[in-house]
Amino acid sequence: MIAVGLMSGTSLDGIDAALCRITPRDRTYDVQLLNFTTSAFAPELQRALHAALPPNAGSTQAVAALHRELGDAFARAALGVAGETRVDYVASHGQTVWHDGDRHITLQIADPFAIREALDATVCYDFRSADMVAGGHGAPLVPYVDAVLLSSATEDRVAVNIGGIANLTVLPKSAELENVVAFDSGPGNMLVDAFVRERTGGAMRYDDGGKLALTGRANVAVLDAMSADPYFALPAPKSTGRERFGAQFLRAHDEGLRALSLEDGAATLAALTASTLAGAIAAHAPSGAHVLVSGGGVHNAAILRGLRERLTGWLVEPSGSMLDPDAKEAIAFAILGYETLRERAASLPRVTGARHPAVLGAIAPCGLRDLLDRVEAECRA
Fold first, then answer.
1. pLDDT band at residue 16, thresholds of 50, 70 and 90?
2. Distance between CA atoms of residues 309 and 97, nearest Å
């Protein structure tokens, strides 16, 4: 199958699109990445997203308008990555505008029918709701794909993704799906991005490469105060997002951060990501496991350095030798879309807290009967 996976995360920086050739192999898949693009949100759309998302109140009208506008943006991203290639299906995560795992409430928007109209292909979408109505957090979902694609019979591994939020998947060697442990460790890039934007009046949108943090010094008192947030001590399963670690978190620690320079503030927030993530890894993974890092945070040298300093004796490196670190989450949703078409459960109850595994995703059909016949033939082969 030729598929496009679409992903926009909590960083709100744009849409990742991965064009993949996917071939089923028993419980795993062979995946060939044919093309990958990131389409930045237009400034007006990005401003509208920030205005509609926590800690801002937003409105039903704003979300409805964004649903359509994002659908068109996702459609353009899919067309751009596909080029002249005929696509069998699209799998779209959409954009999360609200997530409360404890109350089993989530909403991702980006009109799938706009994507179907543009590509003339079936679209799989709304991947979180099925797990939530089964009592789960609906997140994280990528650990299923981590287990399917990255597990090893000979090596303990930890798959880490650092987007707006950081999460980890513990993959002991020869682990069965039901034994995988995964959860959101806390903020990834979200806080340092927000801090840099606010402190520079929007002149800088993020700490490019971690350069600011590398020249600053983390403030221990401020770091300790932020690390005392109750979320970090919660047991898994757990998930989080902008509702907890958005700009309101920075405001809660404004007194300490205001006294810091731009560089020291960036260093302190990068250290928060690195320390909470490293602590979660050390507490749940076999000692000395191979840590494979993906997501936008892989380009932040300060966060990577912080992980390596806190995980001495562990091999911490980008996931590029096994899976493109920038494209990983978009690829993951392309895989989850294939599982939707196979009507095969792709959630991990131990990870999300659900009562049972669930078949994820809804379908906006286009030539669906033929597509399902081809999926069945591929799986038989």
1. very high
2. 35
SS3 157: strand
- Containing H/E element for 351? helix 349-352
Tokens 């392309």 appear where?
334
The 3-state DSSP class for residue 254 equals helix
Rounded Cα distance, 210 and 218, in Å:
13
**pLDDT tens digits, one per residue of 127-181:** 999 999 999 999 999 999 999 999 999 999 999 999 999 999 999 998 889 889 9
Amino acid at 72: D
Count of positions (residues) in the chain? 381
Give the sheet arrangement for strand 157-162, strand by strand.
181-187, 165-171, 157-162, 290-294, 315-318
Dist. CA 206–CA 196, nearest whole Å: 6
Collapsed DSSP state (helix, strand, coil) of residue 42: coil
Q: Which residues contact 283 (CB under 8 A, 6 or more apart)?
A: none
Asked whether the beta carbons of 16 and 8 are under 8 A apart, the reply is yes
Measured CA to CA, the distance from residue 351 to residue 358 in angstroms comes to 12
List, in order, residues 6 or more apart from 115 with CB less than 8 Å away: 6, 71, 74, 75, 78, 90, 92, 123, 364
Cα–Cα distance, 163 to 167 (Å, whole number) = 8
Q: Can you name the residues that pair with 40 across neighbouring β-strands?
A: 14
Residue partners of 196: CB distance under 8 A and separation at least 6: 204, 205, 206, 207, 212, 262, 266
Q: Which residues contact 103 (CB under 8 A, 6 or more apart)?
A: none
Would you call 352 exposed, middle or buried from its count of C-beta atoms within 10 A (0-12, 13-18, 19+)?
A: buried
